Amino acid sequence: MLHSGLWRSGRCISQTELLADFSVVPSDSDPDRAMRRLEPWKIAVIVVAVIVGLALIIGLITFFLCNDQDRYYNVSFLITNVNYDPQYNRQTTDEFRNLSEGIETMMSEIFKESFLSKRYIRSHVVNLSPDPGGVLASVVLVFKFASADSEATTWGHVNRVLRRRLKTIPTSLDVDQSTIRLTELNKKNGDNLLNNCCGIRRQAFSFTGVERITGGQRAREGEWPWQASIQLDGSHRCGASIISNTWLLTAAHCFRGGTNPRRWTASFGILLRPPKQKKLVRRIIVHERYGNVVVDHEHDVAVVELASPIEFTSDVHSVCLPEASHIFPDNSSCFVTGWGALENDGYSVNQLRQAEVKIISTEICNSRQVYGGAITPGMLCAGYLEGQVDACQGDSGGPLVQANSRGIWYLVGIVSWGDECGKRNKPGVYTRVTYYRNWIHSKTGI
Ligand code: ARG
Predict the structure, then answer these.
(1) Measured by CB atoms within 10 angstroms of the end CB, which terminus of the chain is less buried, N or C?
(2) Contacts of 61 (CB under 8 A, 6+ apart)
C-alpha cells in the first residue's frame, strides 16, 4: 500500500520519510503531525481563502487610489481687451458663442498641455458680465481626480497651472492676472450649474459599433437629454423637446386626439418603460393658426406646460432654442431622435433611436419631383433624397438638433410630416423653429 511518491498532507513525501515517520512515537501534540493530518481539501480552502483575501485588499487599495471622481471649479477673471457687448447677455447669441469659444479654447490649451492633461475634462463659460475694465467671465471647470487626492492638493494644482500657463501661453484674450478667483464647487452645485445650461451633453458619445437598423441607431442614456415622450392615456403619442423645466415644445398635430391636459402626461429618459421621470400636464397651447385648413401642415407647433417642474439631471435637461435670426446652413448635419416606427406603418419602440440627417434647401425640397411647392417658410426639409434614413410615425413633435462649434445643441426643427418614411425624394419635413421663435417666447416667456 505504501510506495514512494504517496501524496499526504498536501506534499509529496518519499518512502524514507514515511519510514522515519513510523520510527517515532505517534503523539497528537506534535504540531508537525497535526499539520500532516490536514486533508487536501482543507488546504485548498485555505489557499483559496488567502487568495480571495489578498484580492480583496488589492481591490480596495486600487479602488481608493484609482477611483476617479468629477471635481468642479468655478474660475472668474477679467478680460481687459474686449468691450462688453449687450449681446453677451443672451447665451444663444453669436457674440456670446464667439467669446465663450475663445475662452474655452484658452482653458483647454492651458490644461491640455500641462501635467493635468489627463485630469482635465472640460470648461464651460456660464456667464459674461460687464465690468468697467472689460468683460468679467465666469467659467465652470470639470476635472477627474482620484478620490484619494485631497481637495486642497487638487485645488492647488489647478490654481498653479492656471496662473502659470496664463502668463506664458499665447492668447488673443488679455486676462488680468490679479482678478483670477478659483473656487471649488461641491458636486451638487457643479452638477446643477451645468444641468441648468441648455443644450449640454454631459458625457462624450462616440460611435462605437452601434448597430444600424433602418437608418438609425439606438441612443444611450444622456445622449439626447432634452427628448421627451408625450402620452395620451399613458401611451406614447409623440416626441417633444424640453425647453425649460416646465415647458415642452412639440407639434400641433399631436393633439388631434384632444387637448384636455388631464389625459396627457410626459415622460423622460431613453426608455418609455421604465422612464426616468414622469410629469402631469397643466396646459396645452396649440398654434392659433394650425388646422384652419383641412390637410394642411402649416403652423405645426405647440407648447405644453407641465404641472410640476422637471428635476434636471445629466440625463434629463433642456435643449437651446436658436435666435429667430439664426441660419442653419443647407447640407449641414443634424440629428433626429424618437421612439417612432422603424419603417412606414411600423410600431413604436421602447428605446430611443437617433439618425443623422442633412438639411435640404427649401428650393430643392420644393422642386417638382420632391414636394412640389408644399414647403412654406415655416417648414424645413432634412434627410436624404436617396431615402433610407428618416423620421417616421411616432417621431412627430420630436427634436431635430444641431451642435454649434462649442458643442452646444440647438433645436433646428420639430418632426412634422413626410410622404411615408425614408422614401426616395421624400425627405422628412420639420417645423422651422427659428420661424416660430417669437411665437414660442410669447407663449412661454422663454
Ligand atoms: N406625422 C408623423 C407622426 O405623427 C411623423 C412624420 C414624419 N415623417 C417623416 N417621413 N419624416 O409621427
Answers:
(1) N
(2) none
pLDDT in tens, 371-400: 999 999 999 999 999 999 999 999 999 999
Asked whether residue 167 falls in the same domain as residue 223, the answer is: no
Smallest Cα–Cα separation from 225: which of 343, 323, 337, 332? 337
Measured from CB, residues less than 6 Å from any atom of ligand 1 are 340, 390-396, 415, 417-418, 421, 428
Mutate to test the pocket of ligand 1, among 342, 347, 395 (most ligand atoms within 8 A of CB): 395
CB 381, CB 375: distance < 8 Å:
yes
What residue owns the CA closest to ligand 1's atom 1? 417
Do residue 388 and residue 424 come from a single domain? yes
Residues 302 and 173 in one domain: no
Mutating to test ligand 1, I would choose from 232, 334, 415, 419 the residue with most ligand atoms within 8 A of its C-beta, which is 415
Q: What is the pTM (predicted TM-score) of this model? A: 0.85
Residue from 330, 314, 335 nearest 399 by CA: 335
Same domain, 185 and 221: no
Q: What angle do CA 289, 239, 188 make, to 5 degrees?
A: 115
Count of CB atoms within 10 A of residue 123's CB? 22
